[in-house]
Each structure stands twice: as structure tokens, then as C-alpha cells.
Amino acid sequence: MNSICIKDISKSFNQKQVLKNLSLTVSSGEIFGLLGPSGAGKTTLIKILTGQLSYSGSAEIMGKSCDSLDRSIYSEIGMVMDNSGIYERLTCYDNMMLFAKFNNVKKDVVVNALKRVGLTDVKLSAEKLSKGMKQRLILARALLHHPKILFLDEPTSGLDPATANEIHRLLLELKADGTTIFLTTHNMIEAHKLCNHIALLNEGHIVEFGIPDDICRKYNKENMISILCRDGKTVTIINKPENATQIASYFAEEKVEAIHSSEPNLETVFMSLTGRELDI
Length: 280
Ligand SMILES: Nc1ncnc2c1ncn2[C@@H]1O[C@H](COP(=O)(O)OP(=O)(O)O)[C@@H](O)[C@H]1O
Ligand SMILES: [Mg+2]
What we know:
2 domains; 6-stranded mixed beta sheet; 13 strands; binds adenosine-5'-diphosphate; binds magnesium ion
């Protein structure tokens, strides 16, 4: 079953077309990653899907058209966007309680959500939180009502690797619980690690879509095996059946320190597709 279904979506701001005839589907229970450089249109697409922007074409979440979502949808989806809506002067706990009251969520659910994201110092006011702690608070709040779909706009942008890893662990846990996750990122390693499917958005077009490993293999034009030998030398051999004995001999003679295949990583694929680096 599909949680998100987009057909021929376009969006313009002041005559400038930002999204150009996008089509894609996201299955229920998967982590989907929308990748692309700054200005590609990632946030615009999330805003369309969450009913915050008008568009032309067809977009549905959980079978409901995104141009006529009513308020009840917000009890089924969660969002983590730039404009966090956290009240700086309130404590973590009070920020959560405020949101909990709007959504008829009980106190013990709030306590558990804070625990789940590892926020222990809940009496700290939000203005005193580090960037990573604040992001965890926003995530905890987005999870309070057990949304079926979670939209995350660059959830780990600017976070240190340890905090980013914590968030990755949590997202994988949520996926295991059946939550559908739609995230945007320009971190290729994150996308490869987390996402079942990814789409690369560049200048308003989807220029690639698929399973991360498949995409990397598709662009493995060189198809080489590279062997780092114990004597420090590197040998590169074309990966084809005729060379199997030669490759095996390196193992038989215990010469192999490390072995790699030449498929590019997502970063390299996307740089070659867009002519741009993604972390800008
Ligand atoms: N409200 C708006 N008014 C005018 N232009 C906008 C607005 N929102 C986004 N844009 C433009 O649309 C393009 C895509 O923006 P955005 O979706 O934020 O990209 P991304 O999230 O991939 O960095 C950019 O050129 C941006 O300047
Ligand atoms: Mg953005």
C-alpha cells in the first residue's frame, strides 16, 4: 500500500517553476529519502504534502488529496521542519505538555517520548538547549501522537555525528514499528544507511530514483576489483569471469590486505548527475 502518491506535481513561485512534473510513490512503512542540493525544492515538496502550499497536479497522503486536507490529518502525521514552533522560555517538559494538551495526549506518553529521544534534563528551558537537544525535543513532540507518517526536513542538518546517529537509531526503530518516514537530506551517507528508496531532486526534476545500492551499482561503469596487497601495492582487475582465477590467486597466496569493488557511492553518483556537490 502507498502512503504517499504524487503525479505530475508542479509548483511555481512568482513565475519561477520550482517543481517540474514530479511523480513518485512512497510505500507504507518505508523510509523514503528526498535528496538534493539547496534550492532543489525539497522543503517545497514537504510543504505541499503536508497541506501548507497549493500546487498543480495530483498529490495524496493516505488516500487524501493534499489540496483539501482537513485538520484531522494532523493527528495522523508528524512534522519536523525548520520553523520548529518551540517556545524558548518554556521548559522541555512544558513545551511537550502544551502540544500534548492540543492533541489529547496523556502525561505519561509525554514522559516516555522524552525518554525515547534521550532528553533527561526536562526542566531545562528550551533556550538553553544545544542544537542537538533541541532537535530531539522537536522530534519527541512530533512523535507524541504516534503519527502514521513522519515528515522530516533535514532532521540531522548541523548536528554532531553522535547525535545524528542517535536520531538515525530512533528513525529505524520507528520504521520497525510501522511508521512511514519521508525525510529530506543532503547527507548521502545518512540516505544510504536509512532509506529504502531515494529520489534525487535537481532543479525541480527527479533525476534518479531507486534503492540506494541499486543506484550505486547502476553507475558502476568501471566495474573494477581493487586489491590492496600486504606489500602495500594496489592491483586493479576488471570484474569479469575470465579474471576469477587471477583474483582467487591473491587470496590463495595470502596477499590480500583489503579488497574493494569500484561502484561509486551516492555522493559521486549525484555529483555526476547534477554537476554539483550536495552539501552546499
Ligand atoms: N515562499 C516562497 N516564495 C518564493 N520563492 C520560494 C518560496 N519558497 C521557496 N522558494 C524558492 O523555491 C526554490 C526551492 O526552495 P526549497 O524548497 O526551500 O529548496 P530546498 O529545501 O531543496 O533547499 C528556491 O529557489 C527558493 O528560493
Ligand atoms: Mg529545505
